[in-house]
Amino acid sequence: MNKNLTIVIDGPAGSGKSTISKLLADQLGLAYIDTGAMYRAVALAAHERSVDPTDDRGLEEICRTIRLEFRGARLFMDGRDVSGEIRTPLMDTLSSAVSARPSVRHAMIGLQRRTAEGGGVVMEGRDIGTVVLPDARAKFFLTADPRVRGQRRYRERVQRGESANLSSVVTEIEKRDKNDSERELSPLKPAEDAVIIDTTDLSIPQVVEEIRKKISNI
Ligand code: DC
Q: Does 180 contact ligand 1 (Cβ within 6 A)?
């Protein structure tokens, strides 16, 4: 396999993107870039600075001044590890809101393209195959039944010791899917040349295997 390969994994929340992307990056010796975490960091900064998620100028200023850096799968904002703080239900909602703003998308897409320059990355998100890296040759779009995606998120929260309610997690996921798919800029949708994998009834190793088979001749 080509060590400069860029692998794109898009899909909705709970489709298995992060687990699969991290595993692939580890197994293939590639860098792992979680673009959702970048939007989450912008949401966290907005929350901390009391910037409204519709305030484009305030968001622009945040994007211009924060320094985001991946160290392995962890994300640092201005030198502080925010990997845990960005994974709360509030940040789920706020990140979806800020990610629809033109100022934020413009800044993050530029940063994502610079990060992927030279290849050797697994980049996961919503619009990587359609907008950020349309020329990438290895594009995958993961999907799964919303109930199964909700169950996965519910289990993650319970494992972290948080209280959660399965039906409200499923409702939240459906609401976020709707937000992410119906927005004007970079809506969540598969690229025309993406391989679509429905992970509802597949195990993690089965999905990884399927992707590895597809990229073996690139
Ligand atoms: O993948 P995630 O759940 O951590 O993403 C958080 C939010 O960021 C999600 O609601 C949509 C948005 N997002 C986006 O608009 N574009 C991306 N490339 C990645 C995430």
A: yes
